[in-house]
Fold this sequence. Notes:
Shape of chain A: globular
CATH architecture of the largest domain in chain A: Alpha-Beta Complex
Order of helices and strands of chain A: HEEEEHEHEEEHHEHEHEHEEE
Largest sheet of chain A: 7 strands, mixed
Oligomer: homodimer
Number of strands of chain A: 14
CATH class of the largest domain in chain A: Alpha Beta
Helix content of chain A: 25-40%
Structural class of chain A: alpha+beta
Distance between the termini of chain A: 39 Å
Number of domains of chain A: 2
Largest interface: A-B, 81 and 81 residues
Number of helices of chain A: 8
Strand order of the largest sheet of chain A: 9-11-8-12-10-13-14
CATH superfamily of the largest domain in chain A: PurM-like C-terminal domain
CATH topology of the largest domain in chain A: Phosphoribosyl-aminoimidazole Synthetase, Chain A, domain 2
Amino acid sequence: MNPLTCPLPVFDTETILMGHGGGGRLSADLFRNVFLPAFGNSILGRADDQAFLEIGGARLAFTTDSFVVKPLFFRGGDIGSLAVHGTVNDLAVGGATPLFLSAAFILEEGFPLECLRRIVSSMREAAQRASVQIVTGDTKVVEKGSCDGMFINTAGIGIVDTHLHLSADQARPGDVVLLSGPIGDHGIAILAEREGLSFEADIVSDTAPLHSLVADLLATGATIRCMRDPTRGGVASSCNEIAQTSGVGIQLEEKAIPLREEVRGACELLGLDPLYIANEGKLLAICAPEDAERLLAAMQRHPQGAGASRIGSITSANSGLLTMRTALGATRIVDMLANDPLPRIC
Amino acid sequence: MNPLTCPLPVFDTETILMGHGGGGRLSADLFRNVFLPAFGNSILGRADDQAFLEIGGARLAFTTDSFVVKPLFFRGGDIGSLAVHGTVNDLAVGGATPLFLSAAFILEEGFPLECLRRIVSSMREAAQRASVQIVTGDTKVVEKGSCDGMFINTAGIGIVDTHLHLSADQARPGDVVLLSGPIGDHGIAILAEREGLSFEADIVSDTAPLHSLVADLLATGATIRCMRDPTRGGVASSCNEIAQTSGVGIQLEEKAIPLREEVRGACELLGLDPLYIANEGKLLAICAPEDAERLLAAMQRHPQGAGASRIGSITSANSGLLTMRTALGATRIVDMLANDPLPRIC
């Protein structure tokens, strides 16, 4: 049996597992088997990171994310900046200009007000940098022991040009996969903080807003099929989703994938595959082959894309699968993970 | 010293208290001292239940709420229907037609999938009844013991007629206060469920969408200044907010406030004031005096307003305060509560 076409294992569980929030196969199962059948509509069915809405003549993007990252503060950011960047980025990768955010807090009784002030101040700075306004909010408090310090939800609204149609179902054989910079920084930074690990060189989260990089790419007029910010589940999960949704194969070149030496070392030490590690300020873009070079050049001109690289291509073979040609020349399947190697990284 | 003008006590705390989520004075303090200075913009500064946004020629309302109700299931509803109604109502009381909702779940590891299915199914029914679509979502999972079963955030977008200008700062002396029906059902239903209390007659949550009642009221063309759904903190907190924001006094007539005998009895038994108890399907409307009768009649014609009543009026005296003429003819101040008599009711 061709290993590329053998059926995927089926997961059956009666209770929620950590992996249901991991952005991998269990998350996808939950979406397909519980949420989509219940709420099913053509907008939700797109299963992208944002919904596109037509309201009163305007074309809007709408998205939401809850943040449960642990610990709340880490090298390079905190739950506040992450909550702003995460929602800004989900709008931006849909081609939308992020405009307005909501912010809803669930706080644990006894949470230090000083920590809340720091987090709120970090949200303010992140919102200013991303040119969005936080316009509505909510605060709930639960008894001590009923939540882990604080959780934040942000929802966001952006405006989209009516001619744009970026979606995970748009990738076509021959298309090129671009990545804006080195992977795994965020996940490894969180893990290091959480476990008290100190790596030789400190690894800092890449949490950042992508709206400006995206605006530069859109301004080139290049034919972009789809963009993603590869957060939970990493580049592997985002590429798997695109392959499945577009019904194409994606082949990555291991040697071309940007990766810091420190992150590579930490992953080797910890037995983690950087392809599955979360990023919070990286952009994955699929574009038409004839536009790949100038789109890559535009990425590299932007400070957040200085480490950009062409990491792979779309194939008609291996439909629905992500494969990688390893440094040694072998080809392996990079499956969606069932469970979550690094829970609560966002 | 006139008790009506004595300064309000000041609260100073270094940690989050349950009352910071109670919708009373500590909530207002947190908003004014932490969130508003950080995020400050003219839209957030309105401090209403929803933000009004102008995007691409459309006038939109945008709102968010997290739901941490305990228990998850109660007589008359569950966290799912509550999460839909809560956000639908925050849009509706701004005069918006609710259109689209996001749904973000924080689930505890080990949460029964069957319970999730029930809650999601309840959300679907509530969304259908309110004619809204759930178009985007998110799921996070935290370790067992890190949250209380599940929390839900919903954010919502609605469209508003450009000529409407409903806001808590619009109340004027002489205006009339209308209420759509009996108060306290939701809070007491939750409390009964939580504490295993069984009252002689079972009390059922009033959780319901208000969009249709609001549409009927707007269709009358009456001059409505402001509407609220008096949830956390009850009618007392909503009226206090309006009095403070408009710089007017509000005087309620105790005898005119609709209240079920069972709820009155439960409140007496438990030492609770029904004016502070949460409602999840009641509408408070402030309108011009000349339109009060026909607006009340329109309320009463709607099934959800059958128990509607004219409960008070706006005064120039006692600016910023809510007072109540009691059944015995005395007048008392109904202050904003500092702490939360009934935490986690939504």
